Known about the structure:
mainly alpha; globular
Amino acid sequence: MNTLAWILQIVLGLAFLAAGAMKATQPKEKLVEKMAWAQGFSPVQIKGIGAVEVLGALGLLLPLVTKFADPLAGLAALGLFLTMVGAVITHQRLKDPLAQSVPAFTLGVIALVVALLRFGPVPLG
């Protein structure tokens, strides 16, 4: 199970690192072309979402590199799960097609699984 947790952490960490870096570095106008939801957020809010995603990704990946801070991975996964809950709610409020919620939902489920594996009844690590 520990191997599964690490694989999920790496996949999740890389996905959030890429998505968060894009949100944190691209101008709002460029993001709106790719992500319609960004229209309803200020540039500062979008950059903040990107920063949260990058920090969450680092929280998932750093324990692999540093060999310590395993509790950080569980906290990061829980935070990213909550971020994805917010993303799904945003897509639903905007009445986006269901297909636009699927990536956020999927990443949220993976983040929840990682959190449960790290903080469950028998935490791995």
